């Protein structure tokens, strides 16, 4: 039973339409206190709409939503003191510095965090007095993260937190988010990045067309399936031939030239695939055995790929 005592967010049968189109379609899920929960889905899946309803910026058409035990519409003022929202790109005044922004924002909260400690936490000490527009994309996102933390929130909403970051900045940010979980914060994350959900989240809700497709721990999602042999080769190979290899269960070509063969005997299949390729004079690249990635899982569940 989901209760508001041990759950930071409880969403039940949420519906939101724009015109005649359902952006969120009977969505139900709960986020436990202290977990990092990812909403994963392609463009237009309904992630932002859902998050904005939870933040109190949009009203649902029907269904119920509880955030920290509160109704985001009715208890908006109370809730704003207890949640942190990372502003989207472009949401920060271009000539302000990190230090100025955080020292200003602290006045909006009853019990704010020390701005200087936050500057250190997000790794902006060297750039604390640089104007926002002169920061790199990754630094700008980290400042937005610091700004979301200034009110010492219990629950943090991160909408696409590592967009525009290079791999180094992304890893840094993942480290910060993990540290926040250690401190007991609950995090609701939306992302297009498989790897981000896989590495950060305790549980992942995959949504598509406003509906819940799956809700699992990342490792359960990826282990639920048999192993696979994957490789790249020229597009258009005969899938029936591949599926007919003795150790193969099924074969598919999810992207042109990228092949996935499911098996319960990966070592045998690997030998069969390489022998077949040699006989057919086909060069295989990136041959590997593995579990499905979250990307494969998404493709299998929704029939289309996750786009950035
Ligand atoms: N204010 C609005 N008016 C009309 N339609 C909207 C509005 N906001 C969103 N939509 C539509 O609702 C659907 C869900 O959009 P939403 O932004 O919630 O998805 P998303 O998963 O966050 O996608 P993205 O990753 O692109 O932000 C989309 O089809 C979108 O075009």
TrEMBL record:
Note one Pfam family from the annotation.
ABC_tran
Read off the CDD domains from this record. ABC_DR_subfamily_A (cd03230)
Residue limits of the ABC transporter domain?
Answer: 9-234
Q: Which keywords appear in this protein's UniProt record, sorted alphabetically?
A: ATP-binding, Cell membrane, Membrane, Nodulation, Nucleotide-binding, Translocase, Transport
What is this protein's record name? ABC transporter related protein
Answer whether the UniProt record assigns the keyword Membrane to this protein: yes
Write down the PANTHER family for this protein, in alphabetical order. ABC TRANSPORTER ATP-BINDING PROTEIN (PTHR42711:SF16)
What organism does the UniProt record list as the source? Sphaerobacter thermophilus (strain ATCC 49802 / DSM 20745 / KCCM 41009 / NCIMB 13125 / S 6022)
Task: Report the GO terms under cellular component.
Answer: plasma membrane
Cite a single GO MF annotation: ATP binding
* First-listed, main subcellular location of the protein, grouped into a coarse class: membrane
Matches recorded under Gene3D superfamilies: P-loop containing nucleotide triphosphate hydrolases
- Write out the annotated subcellular location: Cell membrane
């Amino acid at each position: 039973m989901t209760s508001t005592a041990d759950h930071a967010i409880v969403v039940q049968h949420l519906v939101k339409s724009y015109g005649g189109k359902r952006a969120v379609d009977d969505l139900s899920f709960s986020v436990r206190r202290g977990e990092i929960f990812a909403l994963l889905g392609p463009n237009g899946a309904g992630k932002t709409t859902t998050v904005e309803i939870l933040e109190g910026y949009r009203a649902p058409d029907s269904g119920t939503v509880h955030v920290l035990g509160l109704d985001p519409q009715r208890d908006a003022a109370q809730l704003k003191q207890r949640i942190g929202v990372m502003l989207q790109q472009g949401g920060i005044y271009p000539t302000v510095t990190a230090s100025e922004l955080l020292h200003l924002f602290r006045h909006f909260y009853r019990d704010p965090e020390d701005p200087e400690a936050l500057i250190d936490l997000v790794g902006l000490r060297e750039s604390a007095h640089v104007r926002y527009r002169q920061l790199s994309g990754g630094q700008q996102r980290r400042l937005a993260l610091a700004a979301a933390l200034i009110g010492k929130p219990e629950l943090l909403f991160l909408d696409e937190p590592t967009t525009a970051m290079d791999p180094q900045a992304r890893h840094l940010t993942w480290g910060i988010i993990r540290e926040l979980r250690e401190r007991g914060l609950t995090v609701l994350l939306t992302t297009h990045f498989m790897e981000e959900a896989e590495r950060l989240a305790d549980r992942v809700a995959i949504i598509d067309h406003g509906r819940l497709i799956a809700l699992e721990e990342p490792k359960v999602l990826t282990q639920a399936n048999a192993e696979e042999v994957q490789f790249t080769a020229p597009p258009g190979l005969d899938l029936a031939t591949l599926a007919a290899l003795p150790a193969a269960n099924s074969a598919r070509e999810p992207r042109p030239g990228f092949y996935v063969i499911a098996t319960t005997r990966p070592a045998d299949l690997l030998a069969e695939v390489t022998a077949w390729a040699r006989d057919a004079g086909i060069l295989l690249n990136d041959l590997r055995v593995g579990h499905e990635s979250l990307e494969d899982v998404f493709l299998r569940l929704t029939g289309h790929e996750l786009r950035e």
